């Protein structure tokens, strides 16, 4: 009348940490891509690191899904995997999309290089005055000559 407990029922079910690690790696890959566009001097390492993190995240997410659905008696977390896996996979897809399509950005052929002399230009400052680059290099009222001017170029489409 009474069912005997099998050995599998007496083993405590383990936590499935792979989906969490996969989500963290996917988030790291997205942030790595963001750092690539914010800090361009590190252009060589960051895209490859982002792709490697996305690949590792994909493997962890797949392993977590296999553990949760193929061995539910040993690993718990079917519901959690069903929530975390699509979020991680969307982030991985975003990294893949950005990695492929960032190569299509046009090159800036006319931009000055480091050390080049910038052409003179006039722009409006935040108070509405017209300011030219030549005026910034003009001697000050006390007769001192400015040493440098920092120009910051933002590349974008607006």
What are the key terms here?
158 residues, mainly alpha, two-stranded antiparallel ribbon, 5 helices, 4% strand, elongated
Description:
By secondary structure, the protein is mostly helical. The chain has a domain at 10-104. It has five helices and two strands. The protein has a two-stranded antiparallel sheet. Strand 1 and strand 2 form a beta hairpin. The protein is elongated. The relative contact order is 0.12.
Residue windows where pLDDT falls under 50 for at least 5 positions: none
What's the arrangement of strands in the largest beta sheet? 1-2
Distance between the termini: 76 Å
Helix content: 40-55%
Shape assignment: elongated
**How many strand units?**
2
Question: Secondary structure elements and their pairing?
Answer:
Elements: H1 7-10, H2 18-38, H3 46-70, H4 78-101, E1 122-124, E2 130-132, H5 133-136
Antiparallel strand pairs: 1-2
Helix pairs in contact: 2-3, 2-4, 3-4
Task: Write a concise synopsis of the structure shown.
The chain has helices spanning 7-10, 18-38, 46-70, 78-101, 133-136, and strands spanning 122-124, 130-132. The chain is mainly α. β1 and β2 form a beta hairpin.
């Amino acid at each position: 009348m009474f069912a005997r407990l099998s050995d599998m029922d007496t083993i405590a079910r383990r936590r499935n940490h792979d989906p969490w690690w996969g989500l963290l790696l996917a988030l790291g890959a997205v942030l790595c891509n963001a750092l690539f566009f914010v800090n361009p001097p590190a252009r060589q390492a960051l895209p490859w690191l982002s792709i490697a993190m996305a690949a590792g995240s994909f493997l962890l997410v797949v392993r977590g899904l296999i553990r949760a659905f193929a061995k539910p008696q040993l690993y718990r977390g079917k519901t959690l995997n069903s929530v975390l896996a699509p979020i991680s996979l969307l982030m991985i897809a975003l990294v893949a999309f950005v990695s492929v399509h960032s190569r299509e950005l046009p090159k800036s052929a006319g931009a000055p290089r480091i050390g080049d002399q910038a052409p003179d230009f006039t722009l409006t400052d935040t108070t509405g005055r017209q300011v030219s680059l030549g005026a910034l290099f003009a001697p000050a009222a006390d007769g001192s000559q400015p040493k440098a001017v920092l120009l910051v170029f933002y590349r974008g489409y607006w």
